[in-house]
Please model this.
Amino acid sequence: MPGDPTRDKATVDAAGQPLSVLPDGLRFHRVPTHLDERGSVCELFDLRWDWHPDPIVFVYSFTIRPGKIKGWGLHKLHEDRYFVLSGEMEVVLYDARPDATTSGTVYRVVLSHYDRRIMNIPAGVWHASRNLGQTDVVVVNFPTIPYDHSNPDKYRLPLDTEEIPFKFENGSGW
Model:
């Protein structure tokens, strides 16, 4: 073989579960899509899932255009809870909480309409989202507190910051 090929590193176990450590407090809940000849139905959030202790208090959607990245963003007071309605998105998380057992770790996850699930992003965790597809990704967010227009709980760093040990190889945004 030409050159020195590099063997892939295992990223999931035999059951498809990620081998990387999740940031403390990050959880997923798989959400099935039900199909029939008329179309589909998919529940977005149900308190009976007992997935997250906080009720729904505010809901909004956002899009990310193909090849674009939104981030780095952080919330000090609330959690985001993302659900991808359509498209494919990579979410990169950096745990900046000094007291967390996962402090200083980077975690990458792909959310998609092909494998629907809802994911929370704990307060104090930096996150950036990149569209992986060829069409706009549509995301519904159920944050744990309503948006305060006069005093947003939103902190930002540039994508090329030295504060986070992760660099996006392609894509643009802020």
